[in-house]
Write a structure and sequence with these properties.
heterotrimer, A alpha/beta, B alpha+beta, C mainly beta, B: alpha+beta, eight-stranded antiparallel sheet, five-stranded parallel sheet, 37% helix, globular, C: mainly beta, eight-stranded antiparallel β-barrel, four-stranded antiparallel sheet, 1 helix
């Protein structure tokens, strides 16, 4: 496997301009994260302190093994909703190391509306538990939630992927033999009560922790019974009477320490053996990624330059280097793990689609996980390509992507437009993890084309009615569409909606993929089996 | 210098002691071709003395110390093991005249002075009076019992400053220093009430208080034929709580003339009682060069090795030879001193916590090596240091051509000497050793009290703290196991956050 | 959660992690990366950055003894769960332990006695020094763990007071 020969000129004006641009984007992203994580109304912080509660970040830091990484998922979920009033969707999820085990952490953020569950909160929790299911990761729930956010109940209760799915997922995990521990650090009311109710181990903090289907006010309203929180669902009641919780703790520190000790009792998973060699840092500096990514979404760049800054030793075995050259396929190692990489170097033609479908099958046969690096404007359109079967060739690639058994990982490096998103394992295609870079844009078509198309439709409608629009009037139609499209195709919108597992600063991609790969290997890779490829 | 044609009246000697001194004496016994027997309490079963002895006999008592104080049991052990002599070492029964008598009554030889000499010299007031009568210097004093009515007046005549002591006292309790004549009567009354409280005896005596005194003592040897020699002095001014911790010879305080005077005085005192065997005459030495008799120790001293190092004479061997009735093999003129020797007492104690004794297993015991290094030790790896006995574990004796060399060697040896498992005073000794006052020989018995920072030790500096915590963490199973449980890749990533 | 070490009278919350080529101590916000390996000549080599130290180390249960640069140190490990449990033990003041090894000279109280804060409970002797142990609070003597003449080690349990009713 030879080293990629970078042709990047790090002294060029282009490189420097790109680097400045992308560094600014990364900083903006970090600043948004900081605000989401730490900016809270003082009264909310004061309330937590008065209750002797730690912040959710403090809890997580205490839970994790010292000096180990934490891959936070969807840190900016909900950032484009509710005027940013539900930072992080009121829950922190991620993968970290607790007592040496990789676990999913699901930690309610009581500093946001008392940790109430919004529809987006539920989506984020379900996604975290889906990750736990797909990757067989034990879950530590740090419970502190006021329950469902009642004004939004219609958006969170009834449907398949609403609140019930959380509990369904917990049951599935249990059925799979994946263990869960809940640390009850605040109230678990109503549905929230089932999180500990469905966990294998429960720790509860005396004084602040409580579990009940209905809190004292509701009980009083329902039956007239007057009862205190402690009596109704406090630590000592549950650990000594009801058996709903297992371990009493005097404070949060002790509760978290007990939880760590519980996780230490979990079996150490046997990982799926895949190709592995001693890890090696990339030969080319990952910081140069900033200078590679162009400032314009339409501008092309060589995805091999990106690969060179992600993989071990910047070494890459390229498959079919002369065929279907708009799709780069090949093998590399990342944090030692042998992976296949599929990256876009332009629009997908028939040959590149066939090459992709073929390479996916090679990886699937040989149990090589695949990393997709998306920068795709779609499959080529036009008579010539339709005649050559671009649709059925694209379908082959989609069939291969969907049917392959090896874990897939997708990084939205730049643009993701049209059906190319599918062929490159977009969100609907069950990549184990999908990450986004800050300048990424995603939509069924490019914003410009969409705005033009919509303006065009309008112009023709009016033309049929005998009306003619001035250039200014057309622009007045076009511009709002363009803006709306741009907003909703941005990485921030995407991540707000949890269409991804979070935005990454590009330099963090290697570690994020390393952790994702390691997590994925907790699940055995099934034997290949495929649907029917249209030939 | 040493006679070799002894016909020993005994072929086996029982050592009625433990620890380093038992080892020390057994070595000399065995070097003379005799058999060594040691008695031991179960707590000492794993001690080097038991391992070194030809025969080890277990003794018992209500407490471990009581076993070593049980003369009858020890004499029985001697008789049972065929020992012809008993060497008492120091402490325990070494200055017990009754025991010495009982040994003789059992037709065994007591390796030490006669019971009468022990009695005379063991009674401080009698010894003092005797020495004074024999014409040797004692500190001006007044004893209340002599004439209670005139006590205050006589006390005043001793001349200030004076030290008031309870007649029945010991260990520093109830002692008061008076510097202001106006306070004399008041302080006498206070001392009296303290004496009553501590000892149920309000009788007092006063003596001249020597400011910043040095403790200087002289080693003497006498045989049963009236020959007495001295083996020069030892200075033992570095003391904590009236216990010596560093001793040396020659004393850096004495001029050759003073040395001559003090050693001759000591030999004279010994000669005046026809002293037999090894003994030590202790003096208090004032800053102005005056010295007064303090007391006599009728046994081998803890600090005897420094004398051995500069004279080349094995004191334990001489004790045995004297006990066997031999004539001293050397005259005073034969005895020459060469070089400088320091002794450091290694204690199981926490200097920073007021020298409280410490306990624990001896997990690692690494003696230092190098020229001029001698270690008299009674401990071994695997042994347990308990609170049952005196906390002295070993003595490091360092010899150099001169004091500077001895100090430099001592510093290195104390650095190399490692005892792990039980806290010791090794670091403290090194701090004392390197103190400018010690280096320049300007110490007195109040030196350590005046420098509490030496006991407290330096504040642990932050870089060292990190090293210690890091090491301890890695050596502690739950911490190491938890760190090792983290998968390689995650460990290599460290606390990465996205 | 943090494990701890007691060095002298000071408590330190620490964490230990593995790195790519050694270990890292976490103390507050500080990180100390290091390697520790046995020395060929005996003892251990502690390396951190360019600094190298020669150590002697012995472990006795939770006690780690370290000889560093001519001084010996004792560090006592305190398991996080243990510490937190003790911290939360409302009855911490119920137990009277000896601060030093020694032996009991006299007992001034009997089981069932009501004692006042500051009242003498017992007299112990250590290194020929007598130390008086007094009641840390008002209470009732629940249990005596030593008898006169008995010797004990540092931290030995001497006496227990009856637990206080919760307030």
């Amino acid at each position: 496997m030879k080293r990629i020969q970078s042709s990047l000129n790090t002294h060029s004006a282009d490189f420097k301009a790109n680097a400045a641009h992308n560094r600014r984007l990364a900083e903006e992203f970090k600043e948004r994260q900081r605000a989401v994580r730490h900016d809270r109304p003082q009264r909310d912080i004061d309330r937590l302190r008065k209750q002797n509660k730690l912040t959710v970040r403090e809890r997580i830091e205490r839970l994790l093994d010292p000096g180990t990484p934490f891959l936070e998922l969807s840190s900016l979920a909900a950032n484009e909703m509710y005027d940013g009033g539900v930072p992080g969707a009121a829950v922190v999820t991620g993968i970290g190391i607790v007592s040496g085990r990789e676990v999913v952490i699901n930690a309610g953020d009581a500093s946001v509306k008392g940790g109430a569950w919004y529809p987006i909160t539920i989506k984020k929790i379900i996604r975290a538990l889906d990750i736990a299911i797909e990757n067989r990761l034990p879950v530590v729930h740090l419970c502190d939630s006021a329950g469902g956010f009642l004004p939004e109940q219609a958006g969170l209760f009834a449907d398949k992927y609403f609140a019930g799915r959380i509990f369904r997922n917990q049951c599935i995990l249990s059925k799979m033999g994946v263990q869960q521990v809940s640390v009850v650090l605040g109230h678990c009311t109503a549905g929230g009560a089932y999180v500990p109710g469905l966990s294998d181990y429960n720790v509860i903090v005396r004084g602040t922790g409580a579990i009940f289907l209905a809190g004292p006010p509701l009980v009083k309203a329902a039956t007239g019974e007057e009862v205190s929180v402690e009596e109704l669902g406090g630590c000592d009641m549950h650990t000594s009477v009801s058996g709903t919780a297992d371990y009493p703790a005097s404070n949060e520190d002790e509760a978290i320490a007990i939880a760590r000790d519980i996780v230490a009792q979990f079996k150490t998973p046997r990982k799926t053996p895949i190709g592995w060699q001693e890890p090696e840092a990339p030969y080319y500096d990952p910081n140069e990624l900033y200078g590679i990514l162009p400032q314009e979404i339409k501008q092309q760049f060589d995805i091999r330059e990106v690969i060179a800054r992600l993989v071990d030793g910047s070494r890459f075995h390229e498959y079919q280097p002369q065929y279907g050259t708009t799709l780069i396929c090949g093998y590399a190692h990342l944090w030692g793990y042998k992976i296949g990489i599929i990256g876009n170097n332009g629009v997908l033609f028939n040959d590149s689609a066939l090459k992709g479908a073929h390479f996916i099958q090679l990886c699937n046969q040989n149990k090589v996980p695949i990393v997709f690096l998306q920068n795709i404007t779609g499959y080529m359109v036009g008579r010539e390509y339709e005649r050559a079967g671009i649709t059925k060739d694209g379908a082959k690639m989609i069939m291969a992507v969907t049917g392959c058994e090896v874990p897939k990982f997708t990084v939205m490096c730049h643009g993701s437009f049209g059906a190319g998103n599918y062929g490159m394992s977009g969100r609907a295609f069950d990549s184990r993890f999908l990450f986004t870079w800050p300048q990424h844009q995603i939509s069924v078509m490019g914003a410009e084309q969409a705005a033009n198309t919509l303006a065009d439709v309008k112009v023709r409608q009016l033309a049929r009615a005998g009306q003619q629009l001035s250039a200014a009037e057309i622009e007045a139609i076009r511009q709002p569409v363009l803006e709306e499209f741009q907003r909703k195709s941005s990485a921030y919108w995407s991540t707000s909606e949890i269409w991804d597992d979070g935005i990454l600063d590009p330099v963090d991609t290697r570690n994020a993929l390393g952790m994702a790969l390691s997590a994925a290997l907790n699940t055995p890779i099934k034997e290949p089996s495929y649907g029917v490829f249209r030939m | 210098m040493q006679s070799s044609t002894t016909s020993w009246p005994f072929d086996t000697v029982l050592v009625a002691n433990r620890g380093e001194i038992a080892v020390r004496i057994l070595r000399s016994i065995k070097a003379l071709g005799l058999k060594g027997v040691v008695v031991y309490h179960a707590a000492d079963a794993a001690s080097p003395a038991v391992a070194l002895a030809d025969v080890a006999i277990e003794i018992s008592g209500d407490t471990p110390v009581a076993a070593y104080l049980d003369g009858a049991q020890i004499i029985n052990a001697a008789l049972g093991s065929g020992a012809g002599a008993i060497h008492p070492g120091y402490g325990f029964l070494s200055e017990n005249a009754e025991f010495a008598r009982a040994v003789a009554a059992a037709r065994l030889i007591f390796v030490g002075p006669t019971p009468e000499q022990i009695e005379l010299m063991g009674d401080k007031v009698r010894a003092r009076a005797f020495v004074e009568k024999a014409g040797f210097p004692v500190a001006p004093s007044a004893i209340e019992d002599d004439d209670p009515a005139s006590f205050v007046e006589r006390a005043r005549q001793v001349a200030l400053p004076i030290l008031i002591k309870p007649a029945a006292g010991g260990g520093g309790k109830g002692m008061r220093v008076v510097r202001d004549p106006a306070l004399l009567e008041q302080e006498i009354e206070r001392a009296r009430s303290e004496g009553l409280r501590y000892f149920g005896d309000g009788r007092l005596y006063v003596e001249r208080y020597i400011e910043n005194p040095r403790h200087i003592e002289v080693q003497v040897l006498g045989d049963a034929h009236g020959n007495v020699v001295h083996l020069f002095e030892r200075e033992c001014s570095v003391q904590r709580r009236f216990q010596k911790i560093i001793e040396e010879t020659p004393s850096p305080a004495l001029s050759p003339e003073q040395r001559q005077t003090i050693c001759d005085t000591a030999a004279g005192i010994a000669r005046s009682v026809n002293y037999r065997n090894a003994g030590t005459v202790e003096f208090i030495y004032g800053a102005g060069g005056e010295f007064y008799f303090l007391e006599t120790n009728t046994r081998l001293q803890v600090e005897h090795p420094v004398t051995e190092q500069i004279t080349g004479i094995d004191l334990a061997e001489q004790q045995l030879r004297i006990a066997a009735g031999e004539t001293l093999p050397f005259s005073q003129a034969d005895i020459q001193a060469q070089g400088h020797a320091l002794e450091f007492r290694i204690y199981a104690e926490d200097a920073a916590a007021g020298f409280t004794p410490t306990t624990g297993p001896v997990l690692q015991w690494t003696p230092p090596t190098g020229p001029g290094v001698r270690l008299d030790s009674g401990i071994a790896q695997g042994q347990n240091i308990s609170a049952a006995f005196d906390p002295m574990l070993a003595k490091l004796i360092i010899t150099g051509a001169n004091r500077e060399q001895a100090i430099a060697r001592a510093d290195q040896a104390l650095r190399e000497l490692i005892l792990l498992g039980c806290q010791t005073n090794i670091g403290f000794l090194r701090r004392v050793l390197n103190h400018p006052a010690f280096v320049s020989g300007q110490v007195h018995t109040g030196f350590l009290d005046a420098h509490p920072e030496l006991a407290a030790g330096p504040e642990l500096d932050h870089p060292s703290l990190l090293k210690l915590l890091a090491t301890a963490a890695l050596m502690t199973r739950p911490l190491r196991d938890a760190a090792d449980a983290v998968p390689d890749m995650h460990a290599a990533m460290g606390a990465w956050r996205n | 959660m943090k494990h701890g070490f007691k060095v002298g009278d000071a408590d330190y919350d620490i964490g230990l992690s593995r790195t790519a080529d050694g270990y890292c101590l976490h103390l507050g916000s500080e990180h100390f990366a290091f390697q520790l390996r046995p020395a060929e000549a005996g003892g251990w080599i502690l390396a951190s950055g360019s600094e190298v130290d020669h150590l002697a180390i012995a472990v006795d249960g939770d006690q780690v003894h370290i000889h560093l640069d001519g001084e010996t140190y004792q560090l006592r490990f305190e398991h996080a769960l243990q510490r937190l449990a003790e911290l939360n033990e409302s009855s911490a003041a119920d137990v009277i332990r000896s601060a030093m090894p020694g032996n009991l000279i006299s007992l001034d109280v009997a089981v069932g006695d009501h004692v006042k804060q500051g009242q003498t409970l017992l007299m112990m002797e250590s290194m020929k020094m007598e130390t008086t142990i007094v009641a840390p609070r008002d209470g009732v003597v629940a249990e005596l763990h030593v008898a006169p003449g008995q010797s004990f080690d540092k931290d030995a349990l001497l006496l227990t007071l009856e637990a206080q009713p919760d307030d």
